[in-house]
Amino acid sequence: MTRGLLWKVILILLVLVGFAAATIPTKDNPEPIRRGLDLKGGTHLVMLVNVGDAVRLETDQASEMLKAQAKKGNLPIPVTRRVNDTTFVTALPPDTPTTEYEKIAKDYLPSFDESRTPDGAMQFKMKTASQTAIERDTITHTVETIDNRVNALGVTEPYIAPEGGNRLVIQLPGIDDPARVKDIIKTTAQLQFRLVEGDAAPDAAGALASVPANMKTEVDVLPGTKEDALGRAAGTEFYAVRKTVTVTGTDLKNARVQKGQLGQPNVGFSLTPDGARKFGDLTGANIHRRLAIVLDNRVVSAPVINGQINESGVIEGSFTQQQAADLSLVLRSGSLPASLTTMEERTVGPSLGRDSIRQGVLASLIGFIALVLSVLLYYKGAGINAVLALLLNLVILLGMMAIFHATLTLPGIAGIILTLGMAIDSNVLVFERIREEMRDGKTVRAAIENGFSRAFGTIIDTHMTTIISALFLFQFGTGPIKGFAVTLLIGLFASVFTAFFVSRVIFDVMYKAQDRPTEISI
Amino acid sequence: MQIFVNSKYDFVRWRFHAVAFSVLFMLLGLGMFLKHGVNWGIDFAGGATVTLRFRDAVPMDRLRADLANASIQQYGKADANAVLIRLPELTKEADYAGQTVDRLNADLNPQGNAKLDLNFYGRDRLAELLASIDPDAKGSAAAAKDYYKNVAQDIINKRSEVGIFTNMSQVTSAPGVTTRIAGVLNEKTYLGTFNVLGQETVGPQVGRDLQMKAMWAVILSTLAMGLYLWLRFDLMFGASAIVCIVHDVLMSVAFLMMINGEFSLNIVAALLLIVGFSINDTVVMYDRVRENRRKLKTRMTLNEQLNLAMNQTLSRTILTSGSVVIVLIALLLFGGKVIHEFAWILLIGVLAGTYSTVTIVPAVAIAWNNLTGRKHDIAGPANRPTRVEPPPRQDAPPTPSQRKRKAG
User: Fold this and answer.
1) Half-sphere exposure of residue B73, counting CA atoms within 13 Å on the CB side?
2) For residue B5, is it within any domain?
3) What are the angstrom distances between the C-alpha of B111 and each of A300, B257, B371?
């Protein structure tokens, strides 16, 4: 063996050992090749973030700001009306000088453009840049909140990422109670403490009727769960609550499940210093009145304030243990800035994944054995060469997947065996060329030499076409199909190496040792 | 062993028959399309599927009564007691599959949530239940939670192994279950009638987006392929390669129409793969045509050039397609339901790719040549232009200028 050849053999062995080592499970890395959700079981969700919610909130806050500043400056308080998510108009009382309002708009509403409608009303429209910024922040904040929630649930290796078009992709491997996880993710969890006006009533009109006339425009009517004497849910009732919200979920420091006096589960909370001050003011000034605890626009409970409360309190409601645990979890992780809509869900249970692996591996093994047998039958000695190259290709493919943390999916398993079926093509091209050269009367060495060099261009072309389509496949695919495209791409690159370099070295080792080989088994 | 040594088949002669056959095949597919329309899977149409495995025989009547508009079919073998329920298309975004599972659970497991259903719920609920009772007195530390989580995982693994629990002794025979845990399980849990193997919901918006994405992916990859071959060879080759790809894809789609198969994401993946793979035979053949031109000694028409190259590469074509076909047949027979249609479509695509290389591609190339003044009929050395070219080295690929002159 010449020196150069020896180095090549060593290089190949190093590659073999290196990639094989990458696929061996260790204590720190028990699963070197990660299984996709379709094999391991788990849930894949695509959720739409309704960013309009956050934009609308900003617009509402801006119109409140305009009113508050008008009041501060002793100007007539304008009546505002929101036209859409980004725009509100205000018709000023006749004969009021508009310059004062324009000044307020300039000082306090910097993210809005002010203009006039045809009938002379002031119109405020959010600047596009501001809207984009709010939408972007909303997405970021939503991802963070969901991340907190799934981590609190103990999901291992979750994947949460924006996908464009205000969508989020959420992948939760190994979960087996998708309904609960979806509920927890989707709960907006906007907690508010709001004073109750009037009395609870079985319908919205009744609740509003019990409110004093001068307060009617200052309240919202919200539904709540009615409880019987034992604290069990018994239908719906309605409350009129103040529009003004001083204490919200953002003032919470912590929330946890507690046991009530009768052993029923409820949620205890503690407040931040700032929140505690506000809560103390609110409760201190309204002793003996009812305070509604509103979660996502629904009254959870409306206890009577018995005394000033500063730092901590309890949310009681007809909760099961699970509901109380889930509520404290979402309160701890913070509220979502916008509501979510499920656009796509794919859940694979653990046993289906297990069946898939078994079938996929069985089919691949049978395919592989059939492939090896037919190559050996057709090419004899050179067939061994091709099979060795094929095995090395497989090792490289699996090793690369481990190194790049690629995910193995069910189509991916099919992709591996299919890649090997295609990788044979390179060997076939070379071997057929060698046979032709032999038929033309070339020597063994010349035939090998020419076989490889002539097939080179063709092999590059056939690989390029398949690589192009694998790239489109990757671009197009979601989840399992992406996994397929990845295995295909890695396999194609590996096959150029094995068919050209490795297979050539094997031939050289076999025939260069002989002085003048006259026969080749092909 | 060697096959097709020095074969001299006149492939070109059969090109019109082949075109007729392909057109007929596609028309048949078109007919089926007009008759049935496209059987869009939920990936594209939107909708939901729920796959359930039952403890006993499938209660078909109850399912049909509960789910009026759904189509319910057997999933896997008959003795697996599993069904695939497909719910009609969604009109607005909603958690359709989840709601269906809830409804069936309420109807088929009337015990409700008084006890934990070990066939319905999974590891996390079970771990929570065990940790809250703590039969093995592990305390409330994090280690205790892990302990019960592992026990719960063992039980769920056991369930995956047996498919679905049919009696409590299967549950208590799981590795981590101690006598005390078994006591708690017997008291606090029961075995419901079904297990959810999987559920999918695809909203109408995602479905529409995917349809567009799939269409563009197939079209753009076809064009990219044509562009690559145009740059690598010439315009005639690029154009006939595009026709060849379109042919292979249409043949596969026509076949899908004939078996009224479901148009799913996996099918699109198969079509994209066909775009890239079935063209390989054509590339190999063209490579040969180009190489032959370089050492041409006598005058040769394009028809003769194509026939020669096809015969020279025939054994390679058969072998490569053969090895992929072997693999695909293994996937088809043993790969399970999820990749079944995927393997079928790929198989048709690969066969169509091989067939079109020796029929459709020459048909297009020859027609192109005839319409553009037979520029591809290469003159032998006697009639060559006077300009002398250096003889091309046998082992080196031609330079672009050489390629152009030879081809033109």
Assistant:
1) 7
2) no
3) 28, 45, 78
Tally of structural domains, chain B: 2
Q: What is the spatial distance between Cα A64 and Cα A104, in angstroms, rounded to a whole number?
A: 12
Identify the closest residue of chain B to A356 by CA–CA distance. B336
CA A430 to CA A8: how far, in whole Å?
A: 20
- A389 and A456, same domain (yes or no): yes
Question: The domain containing residue A26 runs over which residues?
Answer: 3-40+349-512
In this structure, the answer to whether residues B52 and B142 fall within a common structural domain is: yes
Q: Clarify whether residues A396 and A454 are in a common domain.
A: yes
Cβ contact B203–A472 (<8 Å) = no
Domain that holds residue B281: 11-40+203-407
Statement to judge: residues B126 and B173 lie in one domain: yes
Shortest alpha-carbon distance between residue B310 and chain A (Å): 14
* Residue of B122, B195, B339 with shortest CB distance to A410: B339
The ipTM (two decimal places) reads 0.82
Query: In chain B, which residues have their Cβ closer than 8 Å to the Cβ of A393?
Result: none
The residue whose two tokens read 């790049």 is: A404
Q: What is the pTM of this model?
A: 0.80
Measured CA to CA, the distance from residue B127 to residue A419 in angstroms comes to: 42
Residue B224 placed within a domain:
yes
Q: Do B272 and A473 touch (CB under 8 A)?
A: yes
Which of B158, B159, B320 is the best mutation test for A, with the most CBs of A within 10 A? B320
State how far the Cα of B401 lies from the Cα of B393, in Å rounded to an integer: 15
Please tell me the distance in Å from A389's CA to the nearest CA on chain B: 15
The answer as to whether B294 is a domain residue is yes
**CATH number assigned to the domain comprising residue A261:** 3.30.1360.200
First to last CA, chain A: 22
Taking only the tens of pLDDT, chain A with its 522 residues reads 678 889 999 999 999 999 999 999 888 888 888 888 888 889 999 999 999 988 988 888 888 888 888 888 888 888 888 889 899 998 777 777 778 888 888 888 888 998 888 887 889 999 999 999 999 999 999 999 999 888 888 788 899 999 888 999 999 988 778 888 888 898 888 888 899 988 888 888 888 888 888 888 778 899 988 776 665 667 788 999 988 787 888 888 888 888 877 778 888 999 999 889 989 998 999 999 999 988 888 888 888 888 888 888 888 877 877 788 888 888 888 888 888 988 999 999 888 888 888 888 899 999 999 999 999 999 988 999 999 999 999 999 999 999 988 888 888 888 888 888 888 889 999 999 999 898 888 888 899 999 999 899 889 988 988 899 889 888 887 777 888 888 889 999 999 899 889 999 999 888 876 767 777 888
Regarding whether B242 and B195 lie in a shared domain, the answer is no
Q: Which residues are A123's β-sheet partners? A: A89, A115
Q: Looking at A131, A154, A172, which one is the last position of a domain?
A: A131
Buried-state track B52-89, b at ≥16 Cβ within 10 A, e below 16: bbbbeebbeeebeebbeebebeebbeeebbbbbbbbbb
Nearest chain A CA: its distance from B326 CA (Å): 6
Distance of residue B186 Cα from the nearest chain A Cα, in angstroms: 21
Phi, psi of A235 (to 5 degrees): 85, -170
Which among A304, A331, A358 is the end of a domain? A331
